């Protein structure tokens, strides 16, 4: 197994996890619904835990922890700030933005798993577990959107 390849895959994945943290911080600040705020804060904590897991794996393979976010995520959050100002932070827009973010997270997890043959089994299991949690989050967000309609 190639530690350098694994480190690169995990560093890239962790940028998306860091985007997830920033996105849910934005949502928690923007929402006016106390139940949504609590859920977004739970997702921030979950994402921080994911990031810590990934960084621990990176460090154990001799790599440097990944603390940054993606350029695409930064641009998207900037666009969301503009959209929020225009829509007045309505709950449906916030939820839709979170669904979009989770869909990007799914793509990042799938991209990481495309390298499964090059990854240690424990890393594959960690990525699959986090992907399943992201899928569950996406489903819950869709349910929240339906109730907000």
UniProtKB/TrEMBL annotation:
Every DUF2383 domain range: 6-114
InterPro entries: CHP02284, DUF2383, Ferritin-like, Ferritin-like_SF
Protein name, as recorded: PA2169 family four-helix-bundle protein
């Amino acid at each position: 197994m190639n530690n350098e390849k694994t480190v690169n895959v995990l560093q890239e994945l962790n940028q998306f996890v860091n985007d997830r943290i920033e996105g849910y911080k934005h949502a928690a600040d923007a929402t006016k619904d106390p139940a949504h705020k609590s859920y977004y804060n739970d997702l921030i904590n979950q994402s921080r835990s994911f990031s810590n897991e990934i960084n621990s794996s990176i460090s154990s393979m001799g790599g440097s922890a990944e603390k940054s976010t993606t350029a695409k995520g930064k641009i998207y959050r900037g666009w969301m700030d503009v959209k929020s100002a225009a829509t007045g932070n309505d709950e449906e827009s916030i939820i839709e933005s979170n669904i979009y973010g989770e869909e990007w997270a799914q793509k990042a997890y799938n991209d990481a798993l495309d390298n499964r043959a090059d990854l240690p089994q424990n890393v594959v299991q960690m990525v699959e577990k986090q992907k399943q949690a992201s899928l569950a989050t996406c489903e819950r967000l869709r349910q929240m959107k339906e109730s907000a309609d």
